Amino acid sequence: MSYGRGQAAVDWEERYDFPALRAQRVAKVRGELDGSDLDGLVLWKNENVRYLTSLRAQIIAGKSSSLNGVLMAKGEEPVLLCSGGEVDKALFGMPWLAAAHPIPIMEQRELVDGFVREILSPLLKDRGIDDGRIGMDAANLSLLESIREHLPDLEVVDGDTVMQQARWIKLAEELAIVEEACAIGDSVTQRALDETKAGRREQEVAGDAMQTLYYLGGEMAHVITPFVATGEHMSPPHRICTDKIMRNGDLCFIDIGAMWNGYFADIGRTTIVGKPTRRQKEVYTAVYEGLMAGIDKLRPGNTNQDVADAIIEKVGSYGFEDNLFSLFIGHGIGMGANEPPYIGETLPGATTYELKPNMLFAIEPLVWVPDVQGGGGVRIEDMCLVTDGDPRVLSRVEYEEKLML
Fold it and tell me: How far apart are the C-alpha atoms of 341 and 271, rounded to whole Å?
């Protein structure tokens, strides 16, 4: 059984084989690409660039699909297209890369045109696919217009689905890293719970938790805007932290999580400042038992709909079916903070999938009831792995027993 063994390289214990993991990830994408009608991929989403290249880049707010990219043609190794601020580091410290090319921030039209004309076009022509079919996951409209102008015979279609399929079933090496991310995420959550007390503000607790995240080697939070919501801020949920002061009788929800070596842990817990009311216990117990019912359905042969139905039925047995948060109840997770398949999605296009071993989910039912002093909103969230047998819960933070009936 895997567990978080520690983050340092040591000579006395086998830990994480990153070269093997990189090779296996590229092989998975190559397999999906070979089975598709695409000639190659040009990708911009952070998780897809990292999956194929292992680039850990500086993230600038609001520019996540404009800074770094990767080109992968059928039968070839990935080529990194990276910000000028990353290229020296990449060439110096990432010997596994086939090549790395500096690119501008993909916004200003003249610079985008220069990229397509002077960098992308030659790369595609060298591979004989400048008149082929390329999959792309995200792009500014200026890039698409420039491609139409300078590469009129190139067809650009969806490439994100290929990447989602490659990342769908987790590798054993990926799960070992997720375990380490969960160890950090558990610690971040526990620090926030320990700092939750009357007289403190939500943002102070978030700050304490973020200190622990960075102390323990986390790269970033799962929720970039840390979610610490107390009292009436959970009814309906304010999914941020504010200057609200915690008071006796307030429920407090923590959702911050962690990333380590590119993989996310998404963990959430609800606690109480002081003593709970009967109503708060009813809400918490409904959510807890709904979560347990859903986790029990995470077995091969069942579907994501079976999991959602079990949660909804259990929550409904407490009279709260209509009080479930309108967001999905669970989501896939890995290098993507949220990724398909989703559990409990109700919007148009929601799809039913069969569960398979090594699918990884964050299950997160949330019930909120209005007009409850101290708040009537509760969410509990766990990292859960589908195995060949019983589901495995990777997050380990204790539940709040004094909130249970």
Answer: 29
| Complete DSSP assignment for 341-386 | EEES--STT----B--TT-EEEE--EEE-SS-TT--EEE-BEEEE-
Domain end marker among 167, 199, 218: 167
* Residue 152 located in a structural domain: yes
Query: How many separate domains does the chain show?
Result: 2
Q: For the whole model, what pTM was predicted?
A: 0.96
Judge if 199 and 111 occupy the same domain: no
Residue 4 within any structural domain of the chain:
no
As a whole number of angstroms, the distance between CA 266 and CA 3 comes to 16
Distance of alpha carbon 334 from alpha carbon 209, whole angstroms: 21
DSSP assigned state of 255: E
Q: Are 251 and 270 in contact (CB under 8 A)?
A: yes
Residue-averaged pLDDT of the chain: 96
Beta-bridge partners for 367: 324, 378
With H, G, I as helix, E, B as strand and everything else as coil, classify residue 72.
Answer: strand
Q: What is the 3-state secondary structure (H, E, C) of 165-183?
A: HHHHCCCHHHHHHHHHHHH
What CATH number is associated with residue 215?
Answer: 3.90.230.10
Residues 119 and 189 in one domain: no
Domain around 208: 169-403
Express each pLDDT in 268-324 by its tens digit: 999 999 999 999 999 999 999 999 999 999 999 999 999 999 999 999 999 999 999
Pairing verdict, β 79-83 and 100-103 = parallel
Whole-number Cα distances in Å, 335 to 25, 44, 188, 264, 326: 11, 14, 19, 6, 25
* Closest by CA position to 42, among listed 124, 101, 122: 124
The last residue of a domain, from among 135, 167, 199: 167
Nearest Cα neighbor of 355 from 334, 386, 330, 329 is 386
At which residue do the structure tokens 């008149």 appear? 131
- R_g (Cα) of the chain, nearest Å: 23
